[in-house]
Amino acid sequence: MLKHLYIKNYTLIDTLDIDFQSGFSVITGETGAGKSIILGAVGLLLGQRAESKSIKDESAKCIVEAHFSFDEDNAAIKALFDENEIEFDSDDCIIRRELMVSGKSRAFINDTPAPLSLLKEIGDKLMDIHSQHKNLLLGNEDFQLNVVDIIAGNETLRSDYTLLYNRYKESEKTLGRIRQQLDASKANEDFIRYQCEELSKANLEAGELDALKEESYAISHAEDIKSALYNADETFNGDNISLLGNLKSALGSMESIVEVFPKSKEIAERLQSSYIELQDISRDVSSLLEEVDFDPMRMEYINDRLNLLNTLLKKYKVESDEELIAKRDELAISLSQIENSDEELRQAEKNVTEKLGVLMEKAAELTSSRTEAARKVEAEMQRRLIPLGIPNIRFEVHIEEKEPSADGTDRVVFYFSANKNAQPQPVAQIASGGEIARVMLSLKAMISGATQLPTIIFDEIDTGVSGKIAEKMAEMMAEIAHGASQSEEICKNGSPLAEEKGNVGRQVISITHLPQIAAYASNHYKVYKEDNDLFSETKMIQLSQEQRVSEIAAMLSGSTITDEALNNARALLKK
Predict the structure, then answer these.
(1) Contact assessment for residue 516 and residue 474, using Cβ atoms and an 8 Å cutoff
(2) d(Cα 5, Cα 351) in Å, to the nearest integer?
(3) How far apart are CA 413 and CA 377, in angstroms?
């Protein structure tokens, strides 16, 4: 519940510092006193957008701070605190928003900086502000579906369904991608097959291109090479000049004088070594001389092969035969995939069918639980709306089938009729403003027992009603807050929604202009405006019992408070 609210430097508020009580409270005040300003400040704590023009005095920052308490067993709130590593204290949760003149704002939860997204997420679990424009939700099918799911207690079932739905949609995406790829591949199959066959017929070998270039260069210079080798061979073994013969002769001369001239031994040994090495070189030269020959047929083959490889390099926009081989293998894989794609497509289609089957089974469970909950909603709404001045009420929950979506296969529409022999029609199309207010209050009262929301604020939900109906609406708000006698009556009467967990009370705050509702509350707050020579200022106080008498009397009779009005006010409070 909201325990304390502090507002500083916000619009018409200089400083507002006030405690709130549990149970059913009302806030009253003349039109324009600033009730909506206070709600706007509270909205900042729930993550709503902040504007720098809301700052009253631009020389200082604006601060809005609230203290909340809630059931320590509220798992949803505790999980959010744990996930975001924020200190958890169920007795005192402090949320603060600071707004600077620059337009920047900061948010804190228990003095820990927090993004607005988290502020909104936690705020949604702490408080619900129901203003008049939210009555438009009655025309929203998502809202109507959520009401039924809350009554059905479908949170886990719906979460399981959503998981299956996401998996089904993912399988559909995969199927679509395979079909798209298959269509594109089928269109190019002949061309891919042609390219693959072309590269396969080329009998590509890694390194072949460089080897052929080298051999081509050698053959084209065969005469020069052969001449050089011939000259070298002649130098070694020629008739006129024989390097080996002369070297052998010199070796023999040195060996012949070794005994008489020992120093010649070393020279002889060196000549012997040189002779052996040169003999090897001579044999290699002779061998190369025999190998080198101009072969026109070989040259033609090499040129043809080089032309083919260069054409393929240019055609496939690569720079080496290794890349050509990689391209050939890639095309072969693509061709294989095309040939096997029909099987892949069948598997993908089977996967979609299987996931859709599982999804529809879970959807059927959802539909069954919603159908059962719909009957409870119909009975409960009828029971609640009759005392609110709609004795001929017919309230029906229609569940229609739709294509699977993230929330199931059900379209939920609330149908309403307030008159005898009138066929129910969608509630948003037929109900008057006062009827819609009563329908929304009844819905809020119905679902409040199924939620753990600590605080509900009704902002002039009583618009369009008065008198006895206003009293009944006040009674219903008190029921939400206290689990009052009406709730006990419900259990006795065997209401469809009478649960074992009982009627857990919560904090309900109603902003109202009706004295009947103001008198019914346990706590009464007044918002008023004070004017001075410089500016107007919005203030808020909690009224004492005597002050409540005066305030309700003013609501009954206007600015002139008569004794009769005071007596009526006391009678209302006593009642």
Answers:
(1) yes
(2) 56
(3) 12
Rounded CA-CA distance 370/383 in Å is 20
Tokens of 297: 């047929």
Taking alpha carbons only, the member of 509, 510, 543 closest to residue 528 is 543
d(CA 508, CA 421): 37
Which helix (H) or strand (E) segment holds residue 4: the answer is: strand 2-10
Structural tokens at position 368: 């069954």
Contacts of 281 (CB under 8 A, 6+ apart): 236
Distances (CA, A) of 483 to 169, 477, 480, 503: 44, 10, 6, 5
Q: How far is CA 120 from the centre of its chain?
A: 16
**How far apart (Å, rounded) are the C-alpha atoms in residues 90 and 376?**
33
> What pLDDT shows up at residue 378?
95
Amino acid at 243: L
Give the 3-state secondary structure of 60-118: CCEEEEEEECCCCCCHHHHHHHHHCCCCCCCCCEEEEEEECCCCCEEEEECCEECCHHH
The tokens describing 364, both together, are 């059927």
Task: At 149, list the tokens.
Answer: 């799911």
Coil/strand/helix, residue 432: coil
How many CB atoms are closer than 10 A to CB 403? Answer: 6
Residue 514 host element (H or E): none
DSSP string, 388-415: TT-TT-EEEEEEEEEEEETTEEEEEEEE
The pTM of this model reads 0.68
Cα 463 to Cα 189: distance, rounded to the nearest angstrom? 71
- Paired residues of 416 in beta bridges: 395, 425
- Alpha carbons within 13 angstroms on the beta-carbon side of residue 302 total 19
d(CA 233, CA 347): 74
Q: Residues 518-558: pLDDT tens digits?
A: 999 999 999 999 988 778 899 999 999 999 999 999 999 87
CA dihedral 273, 274, 280, 284 (to 10 degrees): 160
Mean pLDDT on 376-395? 93
Cα separation, 238 vs 243, whole angstroms: 8
Q: Which two tokens stand for residue 110?
A: 């228990």
Q: What is the pLDDT of residues 212-225, one digit of tens each?
A: 888 788 777 777 78
Per DSSP, the three-state class of 460 is: coil
Q: Please say whether the beta carbons of 575 and 517 come within 8 A.
A: no
The H-assigned helical ranges of 493-562 are 515-520, 545-557
C-alpha–C-alpha distance, residues 514 and 552, integer Å:
9
Q: How many residues does the chain have?
A: 575
